[in-house]
Each structure stands twice: as structure tokens, then as C-alpha cells.
Design a protein that fits this description.
Helix content is 40%, strand content 19%. The chain is an alpha/beta fold. The chain starts with a strand and ends with a strand.
Length: 257
């Protein structure tokens, strides 16, 4: 699997504080079946020093430690960019923060109601400037919890949506879980990622999805096939055919063909 949203770089943002913690996060990811991680530290006003050059250097340093420790995991560059920072960066600055050096930017959906006004306009402005936008964790955003139809509009305009694996398993509560499952069911979400941060937010995808009823075929599409296409800048593969969800315990069941 390929994890396109993970805060694995040590001492950069609210991810692991030390190299040892980053290595522990990496081991969990590898044990979960993840082979590639896009390091996506926050690029926002809380971490003003975080930039493309620092991210690149931190990725190179962490990759060296992973190799030395025999952890078979590839780290590529990326960033989780807040809308408020995205409007301040020029096109070259944005391109330096894409996932794996490809054409896609990971744009953070606002997690507080105070940041929601104008978000859709910023996202649309980025696409008009020629950038490809992957929307991070919309299922946790008050904006899209209140108006999932807006997310459908943005995806219909060519953006993609990334759901957090832990949201699908209920880590963020039932309301978030229900929206996350609905987005996957309807095809509004095309990527599942860990949004891993550390011990309390591990870099796990398969482990989180195991009890949701999402089929292996659909899991592979969400967490391997589509992420690979985004990193390579190629056309998205066709989604597996799916059947309507049916009850499975307290979760919905989503079956991929």
C-alpha cells in the first residue's frame, strides 16, 4: 500500500518528536503492509518554518535511517497545506510541495468552523492555476459534515478526496465514521491514507479497514492503485464495481468487486 498522508518526519510538526519515534511509526506502517509513505508535515501558520527545502532534507535523513535499520519503506516528499498558506505561495512554491514531486497537492480541509469560509474558493483557485488538488480528511471537516454536497461538487470539478483510515473504523466518532463510509460508498473519496502521527495515531491502513467490510479489491484501489497514479501523474485506474452497503455489526459493509 501507499500512504499519501502521514506526519512521519521527526521534530517537524505534531508528528513524532524524535527519530526513534519516527522509526517506530515506520515499523508499524511496514507491518501493516505500507511500502511507500508521502511525508506530509503541516504547512500552516502554526509551523512557519516548515518549507520545501527542510522537508526534502528531513526526508533524505529519515530515509537514510530507515535503510540503516533495515526497514523496507520508501519515503517521498509532500506536505499538508493549509488554505491560508496556499494562497500565500506562488506556483513554484506550491509545486515544490507536491506529493512525491508529482502534480498533486494535499490541501488540508479545515477542522474548525472558523476556517471554513472561503475554503472552496481557495481550492477552486488552485485548480484554475493549474494545480491538482487532493482534499485531506474532508470527513472530519465541519464544512463537509454540514454540506457533503459541496464536496461532491468539488470532486465533480476534478478534485479528489482522501479519507482517513481511522475515520472509517470509528476512531473519530460515529458521525465522522458515517460520512467517511458514505464518501467511499458513493465514490466521492478516491484515496484512503493513515494521517499517522505517532503512537496514538499510528500509520495503519489495512488494520483500520479490516473490520469495516471494505473488500480487498476496493481497499487496493483506495490505498494502492489510485495513490500510485497520483504519485506518477497518470490517469486514475477504474474503480472496482461495488454493491450497496448492508449492515455488519455497528458498521456499514462496503463490498468491492
Amino acid at each position: 500500500m501507499i500512504d499519501l498522508h502521514c506526519h512521519i518526519l521527526p521534530g517537524v510538526d505534531d508528528g513524532p518528536a524524535t527519530v526513534a519515534e519516527a522509526l517506530a511509526l515506520a515499523r508499524v506502517a511496514r507491518d501493516d503492509g505500507i511500502t511507500t509513505i508521502a511525508a506530509t508535515p503541516h504547512v500552516n501558520s502554526d509551523y512557519p518554518a516548515v518549507g520545501a527545502a527542510g522537508i526534502s532534507g528531513a526526508v533524505e535523513a529519515l530515509q537514510g535511517r530507515l535503510d540503516a535499520e533495515g526497514i523496507d519503506l520508501r519515503i517521498v516528499t509532500g506536505a499538508e497545506i493549509a488554505a491560508t498558506r496556499a494562497v500565500e505561495l506562488d506556483d513554484d512554491g506550491l509545486r515544490a510541495l507536491t506529493l512525491g514531486g508529482g502534480p498533486w497537492l494535499l490541501l488540508e480541509c479545515p477542522l474548525t468552523a472558523t476556517l471554513t469560509p472561503g475554503f472552496a474558493g481557495v481550492a477552486r483557485s488552485l485548480t484554475r492555476r493549474g494545480h491538482h488538488v487532493l482534499l485531506a480528511h474532508p470527513e472530519r471537516s465541519p464544512l463537509f459534515l454540514r454540506s457533503p454536497a459541496l464536496l461532491s461538487e468539488l470532486v465533480g470539478e476534478g478534485m479528489l478526496a482522501q479519507v482517513t483510515a481511522g475515520a472509517l473504523s470509528g476512531r473519530f466518532g460515529r458521525t465522522v465514521r458515517d460520512l467517511a463510509l458514505t464518501l467511499v460508498k458513493r465514490g466521492t473519496a478516491q484515496v484512503v491514507a493513515s494521517d499517522g502521527h505517532g503512537v496514538l495515531r499510528p500509520a495503519r491502513i489495512a488494520g483500520e479497514l479490516r473490520e469495516t467490510g471494505i473488500s480487498p479489491a476496493l481497499t487496493a484501489w483506495l490505498a494502492r492503485d489510485v495513490p500510485a497514479a497520483l504519485l506518477e501523474g497518470t490517469e486514475l485506474p477504474s474503480r472496482p464495481e461495488t454493491a450497496p452497503p448492508s449492515p455488519r455489526g455497528r458498521l456499514l459493509r462496503i463490498v468491492g468487486g
